[in-house]
Amino acid sequence: MGYTANILNGTCIRGRFRCPRMLCLFFVCICLLGRGEVCNAQQSTCLERLKASGAIHAVQPSDEKLDRLNVGNASFSCDLYVQASAAKDALEDFRAGLPKADKALMDKVLLYPVRVIIDDPATGQTKQTLTVKNYSDWATVQSKDLTKEQLKLVDCSELGNVTIVGRGSFNPGFIIGDGLVFFSTKNPKHIGVASIHLMQITPEMLNRACTQ
Asked: Are 7 and 19 in contact (CB under 8 A)?
């Protein structure tokens, strides 16, 4: 008896029976692996349905290749309903704009208002929580509170070491650096930074991110 997936609606049909989305994906992948495939058909289906719904721009050639390039091998298209290429572009804009204090790039990628949590370096406890409303606000935070270790961690970030979070929730997205920066994918056509947690960066965190 075959399985038919309806990924975006969260159901699949096995004959006349419906089952939850995660169980559906399990059966679909088992079926594909049994034929020597690796769930590429599932990714393609998610991308095509997102395109048909108008939720994303035109599918890029790299979207299927990059779709599971992240910690845990989750799917950008099936789990976050976004294109991997768009996630990559947002991450690269942030990586390029931050060290140069490039206002144009930062305005492009920061989803104002941005929540910023600042930890006390001595205790690791939250010292201050701010709402960054514009680039001027962010420039002040960056000049006063961003450390060279945090900047290094951002520089080492790439699609392959981000972690997808909030699947199926009201606020889905992905994080870099153990939660240093959260990119919201709530709007698939404008992925960007919704919150920043200026935490203490340990050598272990840098080692994980920078020695891929």
From this structure: no
